[in-house]
Amino acid sequence: MTNVIEARGLTKRYGKYKAVDSIDLEVPAGRIVGLIGPNGAGKTSALKAILGLTNFEGELKVLGKDPSRDRAALMEDVCFIADVAVLPRWARVWQLLEFTEKIHPRFRREKCEAYLKTTKVRMDHRVKQLSKGMVAQLHLAIVMAIDVRLLVLDEPTLGLDILYRKQFYTNLLNDYFDEQRSILITTHQVEEVEHILSDLVFIQEGKIALDCTMDDVQERYIELMATPETIEAARALNPLFERVLFGRHIFLYENADRAKLSALGELHTPSVADLFVATMSNGGEA
Amino acid sequence: MNRLKALMVREYWENRGAFRTTPLVIGGIYVVVFLMGIFTFGYFDNEFHTLKEAIQFIAQKTNPGDRAFAIQMGLMFNSFLFTLVLAIVVFFYLLGSLYDDRKDRSILWWKSLPASDTLTLASKLLSAMFVVPVFFFVVYVLTMLALTIISSIVVLTLGENPWTLFLGLTNPFKPLGMLLASYLAMAFWALPLYGWLMFVSAVSPRIPLLFALVPPAVFAVLQIWIDFLRTFTLKTNLGGLIWNWFANSPLIISGGEHNGNVGAALGIPITDDFDHAVTIGNMLDRLFSVDMLMGLLLAAVFLAAALWLRHRATDN
């Protein structure tokens, strides 16, 4: 199986500034990859290159196509939700469905309509009459009715309340995802996606700071909650990062000896958010 | 082909107000003003000539040939308001065509669908060239039909025969056909302008109207100034070029005596580059001229630039 996305030395410049600085990235089929980074790290620039929305330097193949040249053809197999507010405000729901049906060979209108029946969105609503959450539901309903091989989500739940956000990811996971498809998600709300990801890519200042599977994360990283007596011993074992929570010192280790650590305090798998903070504070040297 | 059609339907949905409602409103204004005219005349019946006397006068004292000619000219000249508003609608439609979806970020939605930028651009240009003029034309014909029906009823109630008075005198399809032909010819003649507007629409970071008007105006003023400094004369400049282009256009927008005939004219009959009489031949002369060829080249440059920009356009 070839990779869905293959990038070698992908670079995006704005003048002298490199938003994306020579990154290598491989996304195999059937994965859910989280592209995670702070604001301005280059996430959106990388996605725009992948979606053929911008020119770039370096090598980039998405489903074997060059996105900057074949965007229209590529969009038959790739879908993206850029952010919740991009559906045209003047359009009525039935118009969006009819247009998508005529333009997209893989759109199944019945499926979309069935999904919309479970929401408050009605066919004669205009997009501008819908709440932000309903627009997101509508956009997701359209996208889920399109049978594509790669779905790209760029901050898909920005500005939505917690109920819609949960619902959004639940629907995505239950009704959409399967081994044939890949999903690439960018967000800086890490906690929200960490349970659905299969792969993790951290991006910082245009460079990849971490690229591994979630299984790797569990194997490679461990967090130790040290007791006051073991703090010095814990520090001596080369932690990646140390933080203090309610007076307890918490250390993050990479490839550490678990037996040794368990003697010093409680062990658990770090959350993606903690790993993210540790990686970013270390300047990407995780 | 189906995608192009879907894209053009999309343009119609988004601009239904401009494409369909606007000409309907103008048609409504024509009908209302016409009815007001008849009622005004009726109101003063006892003081001046009555409407009945006036129609009798027309029926008895004027010659059917003159009446036929007046109807022919009327059917072309009455379109003036439609043509004027059509030009304004097309102007602003094109100015927003590649700008509005960048501004409201919906370009990210449109670009997530498998429709190429070339096809998108084509759907917008073709809408401006053909869809909008045809809408205006159809509503114009319906308006003239309404006025004819009203006139016939008025004439009938006043005891005259509308058939001999005006209905049966002339073939209305000839002047109406000329009008439609002139709209279609103008679609090509105006391509350099359309190309410029789409280019501006694709390139403007904001307020495309300013970007459309200010650079040519500044350029023309500089040209006049430099020319004046060099030769102390005011010769041709961009402004004059545009004016000449407009005066030579195949649009029925003026009238007057031309080549011994009084009647409607193509463009404004102040230039000798083309014959201004309203004939299909004269329209074709314009479309197969060197001027048109230059215009097409210019339009191609603008449109290629617009396409290049659209290809790279995202939401910021």
Keywords:
heterodimer; A: 286 residues; alpha/beta; Rossmann fold; Alpha-Beta Plaits; six-stranded mixed β-sheet; globular; B: 316 residues; mainly alpha; two-stranded antiparallel ribbon
SSE order of chain A in H/E notation? Answer: EEEHEHEHHHEHEHEEHEHEEHEH
First-residue to last-residue Cα separation of chain A: 30 Å
Roughly what fraction of the amino acids of chain B lie in strands?
under 5%
In which order are the strands of the major sheet of chain B placed? 1-2
> What is the fold named in CATH at topology level of the largest domain in chain A?
Rossmann fold
CATH structural class of the largest domain in chain A: Alpha Beta
Oligomer status: heterodimer
Largest interface: chains, residues each: A-B, 33 and 28 residues
How many domains make up the 3D coordinates of chain A? 2
Task: Describe the strand arrangement of the main beta sheet of chain A, using strand numbers.
Answer: 5-6-7-3-8-9
Mean pLDDT of chain B: 90
Characterise this structure.
The complex is a heterodimer of chains A (286) and B (316). Chain A is α/β, with parallel strands linked by helices and 286 residues long. Chain A contains eleven helices and 13 strands. In chain A, the strands form three sheets. Chain A has a six-stranded mixed beta sheet, sandwiched between helices. Chain B has one domain (9-312). Chain B has helices at residues 2-14, 16-43, 51-61, 64-77, 80-97, 100-103, 107-110, 117-157, 162-167, 173-189, 191-203, 208-231, 238-247, 280-287, 290-312; strands at 252-258, 261-266. In chain B, strands 1-2 form a two-stranded antiparallel ribbon. The longest helix of chain B is centred in the middle third of the chain and has 41 residues, at 117-157. The radius of gyration of chain B is 23 Å and the shape is globular. Chain A binds chain B through residues 48, 51-55, 71-76, 79-83, 85-92, 95, 99-100, 102-105, 139, and chain B through 2-3, 5-7, 9-10, 13-14, 101, 104-117, 119, 312, 314-315.
